[in-house]
Design goal:
heterodimer, A: about 190 residues, mainly alpha, elongated, disordered N terminus, B: about 250 residues, alpha+beta, 6-stranded mixed beta sheet, 9 helices, 6 strands, transmembrane (chain B), signal (chain B)
Amino acid sequence: MLVTSEKQAPPRSRTSGSALPWVTTVSRLVLACVLIVAGWGKIGTPVLSVQSVKAYKLLPDSLATVVGYGLPILEIVIGVLLIVGLLTRAAGAISALLMLAFVIGIASVWARGLRIDCGCFGGGGQLKPGVEPDYLIDILRDSGLFVLGVVIAWFGPGRLALDSALGLAPERESHDDIEGDDGEPQEQENH
Amino acid sequence: MGKAARDQSVRDRIKAQREEQQHRERLRRVATITAAVVVALGAIGAGWWYAANGSKPEEVTQALAPVTASPDGSVVMSVAGVEKPVLDVYEDFQCPACKAMEETSGATIKNLAAEGKVKVVYHPITIFSQEVNGGVTRANSLRAGAASRCIPGGTPWVKFHDRLFKEQPAETVEGFKLEDLVAWGKEAGVTSAGFETCVTGQQKASEQVDYSTKILQGAQLSGTPTLKLNGTEIGNDVAFKPAELRKAVLNAAK
């Protein structure tokens, strides 16, 4: 453990050369923006949100209803947590899981030959007349966002995060150490 | 007490202090994290409840307003003398979102008409083109729409309309079979002698096609379901929320 030394030596001074904290900060903001836009597009019409979940034909109706009502607000809350950098690692992990679920869902729809709109940013899951489904783009986008979620969960909040301000992210130092100087690997294993 | 022992006790004290400080720090962290988690879960719970509550349908509480099939191919439901506001309902019996709209707001629409607050005009149309799912979806929609046109208005029309949405098949499989349509019509209270042959002979199919073409071009629909209040499209964030829809209609009725 690093014990009290972390009080005297602010992590900032040791890590000024490292870009990693900024990488996670930018990841947080990008992921958060997409989540909030996606949640906002759905939250106004919960019934259609349920419809788009049902369009995947993966969940039983009752569960689809629960997910359809809950997903938009979940996306928005996770997005807000990511922006302010609170409970960052958990929020990053949940986003990554969400994106993984979306990728699996869309891939399964594709494999089963269904023709739907992913409903990612609202709508009832139905393609507009004359529109072709674009599963590959959806999958690539969500895979990219999955990676961002993993980065955040792995490397912690980075800069400009409430977690650091509230002292919830003491583990940041160990990673900064590894980035900043010759750092000892066993320090990382503590966390 | 020797020097070594004194040093030892000082060290112990410092160590104890440090441990206590660490302990307090840990408690504070746990408290902060717990508070943040509780707030986040609370927000999610409140949002979920709000979504579920706002989507709760009304019950149909009274007898339907009189229903008449108009010569132009639409079906009007209104209390005699109520001419405005007008609520146009554009829907396709085969469209899942229309089914969802009916399940959510259908009762509100019926209630408002029965209360004499609005004149409801149903436009059953077929929006699916032949290319979708190899034509299966369009054929389903056409059979259902044509069958509804074999009913000359009245409560049976609305009951049949509701039944069609209830029995809506998946878009990729053949459904709305002719013999089923006949049976559902009879169960809805259709008694006219020509109904069965009208349905099985698909006598109104071309009428359904023509009416759909006319509406899709004339009403500038982006899709179904579409609700229009006095000619202005109502957003989905109102159309799919019974209380909001009721409010919008009542405001227009003032």
